[in-house]
Known about the structure:
Elements: H1 10-50, H2 55-61, H3 63-94, H4 98-114, H5 120-135, H6 142-179, H7 183-186, H8 192-244, H9 250-256, E1 262-266, E2 269-273, E3 279-280, E4 294-297, E5 303-308, E6 320-325, E7 328-331, E8 342-350, E9 355-358, E10 362-364, E11 370-375, E12 377-380, E13 389-392, H10 393-397, E14 404-410, E15 415-419, E16 424-431, H11 433-459, H12 464-480, H13 482-489, H14 498-507, H15 519-541, H16 546-556, H17 563-576, H18 578-591
Antiparallel strand pairs: 1-16, 2-3, 2-5, 4-15, 5-14, 6-11, 6-16, 7-15, 8-9, 8-10, 8-14, 12-13
Helix pairs in contact: 1-3, 2-3, 4-8, 5-6, 5-8, 6-8, 6-11, 6-12, 6-16, 8-11, 8-18, 11-12, 11-16, 11-17, 11-18, 13-15, 16-17
Amino acid sequence: MSFDPIPYDKSAALVHFLIVFGSSMLLAVLFCFLLDFLSRICSGIYQYFSGEGAFLTKVKKIPFFNAIKFTFSSAGEALYSILLAIGDFFVQMIHLSCRRIWSLCVLTIRESLRQKILYVFIIFAVLFMFAGWFLSGTADRPDLQVQSYIDFVLKAISWLVIPIMLLLACWSLPEDIRLRTIHTVVTKPAYRIEIVLGRMLGFTLLGTVILLVMGTVGYIWIERQVADIEQSKTVASAAKNQESGEKSTSEEKAEAGSLLVSKVPLYGEISFTDREGAPTALGINVGDVWMFRSYIEGATKASAIYKFKGVDESDAIGDDLVLQSSFEAFRTHKGNMEVGGILFQLTFVNEDKGLRVESPPYVNKEYSDNRIAINRKMVQKKFDGSEDVEVDIFDDLVDDEGNLTVEVHCQEAGQLLGMARSDLFIRTPDRQFYVGYSKAVFGIWMPMVLVIMLGVTISCFVKGPVAILTTLTVVLVGFMSKEYMNEILSGKMEAAGAIEAWYRLITHMNSQTELPPGPVKVIIGVVDSIIINFLWLCQQVIPNFGIFSNMREYVIKGFDISWSAAMLPAIATTAAYILPCLIISFYSLKLRELEAK
């Protein structure tokens, strides 16, 4: 895959959420307290100069002490009103009625169906009626053709469901307020928080049903398309073997039935050694802008060392340990093109027992996955004249802590082999395709729920068109700009400030040159720091929708979606916005005059 599936750090994420959420709530409470306190003070001052109210009489008797007393009493009243407002939220949460929420949920679904929401199925059906015409023959290899089918289905579902639910969530509540149909709800014993929950739950249930129907139809469509590809592939392979007079090997048969699978990889940690065999942080940089892979030099002691943890016999497929690689080659000369790729060799190492077992050379087929099936019984060749020793991978080469160490060496001089952590993994027994596909559909459901919560929340304090534009902006920034924002905030980007970049552009100043000292530099630094702090705030508030896109990439590439690297962060991201959205929606709807247009 083109990204590194790093396990999710649950404790760090929880601490980060508590810090951001707690500080935001504290700032909101302090702001409301100061606003209420200042309004009371201003009201008292107005009464003093206008001669109205009892405040004037008290101040005339003992002006200084009564002014102090009034200040403290105003602060106390402001604090009491803030605590009362906070308590109101928890009181309504405690007294929630499932019956009222369900009634509001059903009402939301009925209103959505009146808006002809089910017409989306017509668009979906038209897409699938003609998709086969345009997608067939788009790739030369059958596996790439299958990837295009899966990619089309998942993108079609997400691009139809999410925008429609965004429009419904943003438009429904403001339209009810404008038409005053909300009066039929607020005049009944229904809490404001129940109105919000009823909307969110109603749109979620409706979107879930639409998503399930589309996901089921998409799965059947993929199965039918892939069945035709597998049939043509089998016929072509049989004709080729008949012409050559050869029989199909077990490896070819395994590859023939692997177009729709959910591979379960076991990744390890990677480290490098240089051409002298000394440990190094990274391999060779061949000048590629994308620093995802490091390269090792061929015919030297340079190697990439993979250390797989928790390896046992359950990871074997039959009697074989199956490895899969997708290394990238960098050629300094043409080399032997008849081989079909650069040769590399694997060395299994157990330092505790002093074992080093070398595999035969393998050909690295570029832009494809190299499936390497190694029998668990390997032979350790002795070069000192003694007899070769047979070793078992799981009994002898896996150490006492369950770690398996594999060294990768490039065998050809003048050639380099690039690799990342995800370019070599142990392929454990595969799962059925529907397992990974259902997780990918669940990966569409979570951003749909997140968009619904954001849309309903924003629509509680602005009108429909503004809510649609605001929610759409948040979603687009969350999909496209999170990585760029992280790069700016990391401090690694030179001249990252907007004003500084603009100043350097109009003055034709290189980014390596220091700004001239003076008031201009100070002003630019102050303004850029304000912009950076605002960008940090946006980066913390706007959800990272790119997490959900990664789940789709797993299934497209034929992998089962990892729980720790993909499912857990996606679930945590969705769950993290539930409480903030409920709080903002509750107070926005409570302060909004629902009886007005």
